[in-house]
Amino acid sequence: MAPLRQRQARTYDASLVVPPPRFNAYYEIEDVRPIDIATWKLELSGLIAEKAPWTIDQLYALPEQELIIKHICVEGWDYIGQWSGPNLRQFLTRVGADLRAKYVVFHGNDDYMESIDMASALHPQTILATKYAGEPIGDPYGYPIRLRTAVKLGFKNPKWLRAIEVTNTCSGGFWEDPGFNWFAGL
Predict the structure, then answer these.
(1) pTM confidence score
(2) What is the pLDDT of residue 5?
(3) I need a surface site. Which of 47, 94, 165, 179 has the fewest CB within 10 A?
(4) For the chain, what is the HEC assignment?
């Protein structure tokens, strides 16, 4: 029997990381509504035991995971970005989410809603991104927190998160309602 080969860690040339990421939304950058961080809270609902809202300081206090991943947009563009923030699985475990539930729904500040399957939410490369290239995410790119996963197309990574819901009901999403594929896996 031949010995198993060890997996080589993937490395990226730092010059390929695009700072800042490309702005993309269904409206112009001038129309981004600024977040008042003094009153901002991440609301939790659904199949979660501890539904107390989280402040940005509480999220920043969690262990941070860094990812260098490729963002792929259905519009035909892509970029490699360096993201960091709390691992979503660890966050969901900490708040007592039912990890047997089918879906996790994300609500953005601009009423953008997106949902993913629980397996993708628990993937090791799915984080609640609070930083890009080592710096806090700026207003037009999802401040103060956004979803980043390596296993979904770009539109499944909502910006400006204000709420997370764990549920067994598929809620669709902003782009799925007019016909985009819901799973949108890579």
Answers:
(1) 0.88
(2) 43
(3) 179
(4) CCCCCCCCCCCCCHHHECCCCCCCCCCCHHHCCCCCCCCCCEEEEECECCCCCECHHHHHCCCCEEEEEEEECCCCCEEEEEEEECEHHHHHHHCCECCCCCEEEEEECCCCEEEEEHHHHCCCCEEEECEECCEECCHHHCCCCEEEECCECHHHCCCCEEEEEEECCCCCECCCCCCCCCCCEC
